[in-house]
Structure prediction request, 131 residues.
Amino acid sequence: MADSSSGRADAPPPRVRVTAPRPGAAGASARTRQARGGPTSDIAGVYVRSLIRSQLRLAIVFSAGFAAATALFALAIALVPALGSTFVFGVPASWLLLAVGIYPLTLTIAGLYVRAASRNEARYRSLTEAE
Prediction:
């Protein structure tokens, strides 16, 4: 921009360096946790870690259960050869079971997982509200 009275350009504002708090600085970790909305006390941190561990354990158990149930479903179809020779609406029964039969299993396991995860979160909330 040019100054109309003197004909010279305005000086740019001085540069400012913006940095994050140093990791070793006193109070830096507390300010960072509060800024992120994380736990501010040791017991709250224990509760959060406990919730994360329980949710992870729940996810692993349900994932393994789903994989095992799906494998057993496919194994049962493979072990019953009559399903391959039985046709329903021109489609082998084994294909129909794999294509359509897996959805109720998926929905059931997903519903059970959501219910258990909600129960874990409700327990966490009850612990943090009692604090």
